[in-house]
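Hi Q.,

Before the meeting this afternoon, I wanted you to have the magnesium ion prediction in hand. No need to reply - just skim if you have a minute. The sequence and ligand are here:
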Amino acid sequence: MAKIDWYNEFVDFSYKPAKDDLVCLFYFEPEAGLTKKEAAGRIASESSTGTWTTLYKLPPRMKNLQAIAFDLDGNYLKVAYPRDLWDNGNLPQLLSGIAGNIFGMKAVKNLRLIDVSLPQSYIKHFKGPHHGIQGIRKMMKIHKRPLTGAVPKPKIGFSAAEHADIAFETWMGGFDFTKDDENLTSTKFNKFEERVRLMTKMRDKAEKLTGETKSAFINITGETELMKKRAKLLHSYGWEYAMIDVVVVGTAAVHTMRDYLSDLDMAIHAHRAMHASFDRNPKHGMTMQFLAKIMRLIGVTQIHSGTAVGKLVGSKEEVKAIADTLRKNKVKANKNILLQQDWGNIKSAFPVSSGGLHPGLVPDVMKIYGTELVLLVSGGIHGHPKGTRAGAMATMQAVDATMKGESLKEYAKKHEELRLALEKWGYMKPK
Ligand code: CAP
Ligand code: MG
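Predicted structure with the ligand bound:
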């Protein structure tokens, strides 16, 4: 009987990836009735040149474009993709290939894209972050400790004037940044233009009083032309950053804005709102380390990476994998979590730890990340018994204690703001 499918031609467990191959690591569960090898063939086929049936005509050269499932270890599968499949510098096309139809195949009960190892011949077509971690540290004149910031809370509802006043208190408490929340862009009670104007006034006042550089992640999320307009306004008021909710705007818009903001010598704070719709299920979807990788490749300055100890999902192992993906130049393979990656000339990006943090959790977060991170503590300063400024001071005291290797308990004996924070929250891990 004539063969009706050719999936097994996409499997070769003796194949050794070529230097220029792009390699993906998947977790997968075959649907009942299919072997792992049969499902593996379907993953490699559907994400490269194949279809469900044998064809009347198949030019021999197509063989050179087929993906090959080459390494099967339990439910983990590696697939090698020929370099010629991929359009230089086109990340949406990459996603349509390795993260497209395959998630909907009946052949798999579950499928998760864990990581991708990109060859130099692919990454050289991307610019990566404009500043890099050292560039940001130089710009902010902060060379050792974590950078710190907070979002006004409640996350939306303040007038532009109230928002700017809270920013002033945050900066005067010693924080470097104030951040808009992910769902605040421009509303009738807090218009973007008004917020920028008033935030600028408060920034200049706080810089004058403290002698420190103060900045903000002001949210320009929206249609790309609108984002350009808002970025230009930020630049005209001397702001160094723009904030973009990168998942909801999409990789093409982030790419456009990376180049537009880079021409203005501006940095991108990437919020990852909506990521958990595809990365929290350990059996299906894509990992946060994969999302962090493509965002560093496109060129965001920093992206939220989790806390492990705060209110939102993300294990310690996952947080470390994301931090390595963002900060390292040469990433080592970590079984079933990361593939090796040489970033070549692509600059580093800051991990951003945020979500349910307060001064009592600062040592836990710094134990995971070290000092090379942006630390955002929002509810954890505005909920302080003595208010925002004292909450920021308490957090800066917790950072200082941790940098000095002192316990918070000891340090709090001589620092009232930290003592009051520990009295309220202790070391609780919010849910
Ligand atoms: C944190 C936050 C951030 C989350 C995002 C919030 O506020 O502003 O958006 O950190 O999660 O809206 O919850 P709190 P992630 O500090 O008051 O919790 O960083 O995991 O992307
Ligand atoms: Mg938020």
